[in-house]
Amino acid sequence: PTRLVTPLAYGTHLPGLGASAKQLARIVKQRSAGALELELKEPGDGTQPQEILDKVADGAVDAGFATASFWAAKLPAAPLFSGYPFGLDAEAYLAWYERGDGRALYQEMYDHAGINVHVMPCAFGGGEAGGWFAKEVRTPDDVKSLRLRFFGLGGRVMARLGATTVLVPGSELAAAFEKNEIDAAELYPPAVDERYGLKDEVKLIYMPGWHQPETVLELIVNKDRWRALSAQHRELLERACRDNLRASRDETAKLQLDALTRLAKEGVRIEPWPDAVLAAFRDAWSEIAKVEGERDYFFRTVLEDLDRFRDQPATAPPESDRK
Q1: By C-alpha distance, which of 151, 135, 161, 165 is closest to 278?
Q2: How many other CB atoms are found less than 10 A from the CB of residue 280?
Q3: Three state DSSP letters for the chain
Q4: Phi and psi at residue 125, in whole multiples of 5°?
Q5: Phi and psi dihedrals of 268, rounded to 5?
Q6: Would you say 154 and 83 are in contact if contact means Cβ atoms under 8 Å apart?
Q7: Rounded CA gap, 310 and 268, in Å?
Q8: Strands 36-41 and 132-133, how do they pair?
Q9: Mean pLDDT lowest among 48-57, 170-179, 214-223, 258-267
Q10: Are 151 and 242 in contact (CB under 8 A)?
């Protein structure tokens, strides 16, 4: 069989985030009758998550399964394809990729930067919760006193409102809460969060996860390796990713709902953000988006395209999605 060595950013034991890679590998093997396989490598098995893009581009590995937000330092627009503040949900992302300019812009981001990969949006990992909080947030002023673990563009929103962001590995969050080193933290979608024992230390989750309403996972393949595949195998991978994307849209939504239900039964309060706080987050995001757009024209191009697509009247789903 033709094997593509594929390191992962998330372990296959994690629902949604890593399990979707295992599902993709199963689809590819079944549909090719074993002629094409993804040889999955768990995080740290020769490749750290942050190394995946460079290793795939250089040909050190054949492919990688991650989320584009890992490459934000190199590609400012990357988070727009993987989940960004007040961004698209799974349904809207799917429509943008299938009927809008999403796929073309996604590939253009890598091509314009001279990164030698072929990209396919390949799974939804689920929307994140608004965060775990040891303190209640009733007004925007309450954000100013927070010490929190918050990454990416969402972290910049929090910092703009006066919060202090700190770096804490996910595996150390429960201990950080116990030692009163942090007041709040965002981590992963709820189905993964509940595996980290945070409910034993923190009893308040705010919803929605405005900073990342959805998580999009990508399959990237070294472009030379991609061209060397047969046309049949390239088409098989494209179709497998499209089908995995559609299937995971519904599966991960249920995963998150079920996880929140279990957490609530275990004494965790699931509270809506106060309107004034959510409005402050949105205003701060608008300011940050404007700054990023001025710094990077492609960021601005993609965000404007996303906004235009979202503002269009709803259209019927593709025939393949109505069956």
Answers
A1: 161
A2: 19
A3: CEEEEEEECCCCCCCCCCHHHHHHHHHHHHHCCCCEEEEEECCCCCCCHHHHHHHHHHCCCCEEEECHHHHCCCCCCHHHHHCCCCCCCHHHHHHHHHHCCHHHHHHHHHHHCCCCEEEEEEEECCCCCCCEECCCCCCHHHHCCCEEECCHHHHHHHHHCCCEECCCCHHHHHHHHHCCCCCEECCCCHHHHHHHCHHHCCCEEEECCCCCCCCEEEEEEEHHHHHHCCHHHHHHHHHHHHHHHHHHHHHHHHHHHHHHHHHHHCCCEEEECCHHHHHHHHHHHHHHHHHHHHHCHHHHHHHHHHHHHHHCCCCCCCHHHHC
A4: -100, -10
A5: -85, 130
A6: no
A7: 34
A8: unpaired
A9: 170-179
A10: no
Q: Of 300, 302, 291, 317, which Cα lies nearest the Cα of 107?
A: 302
Tell me the C-alpha distance between 35 and 103, whole Å: 27
47 closest CA partner among 68, 62, 30, 28: 62
- pLDDT confidence tier of residue 256, bands split at 50, 70 and 90: very high
Please give the Cα distance from 189 to 176 (Å, whole number): 19
Do 157 and 288 meet the contact criterion of CB atoms below 8 Å apart? Answer: yes
Q: Note whether 99 and 319 are within 8 A (CB).
A: no
**What's the whole-number mean pLDDT along residues 112-131?**
96
Specify the pLDDT at position 196: 87
Q: What is the pLDDT of residues 146-186, one digit of tens each?
A: 999 998 999 999 999 999 999 898 889 999 999 999 999 99
Q: Return the residue matching tokens 């007004």.
A: 139
Query: For residue 239, which of 36, 89, 39, 96 has the smallest C-alpha distance?
Result: 36
Model-level pTM? Answer: 0.93
- Rounded Cα distance between 140 and 159, Å, is 12
**Residue 293 has which token pair?**
């757009």
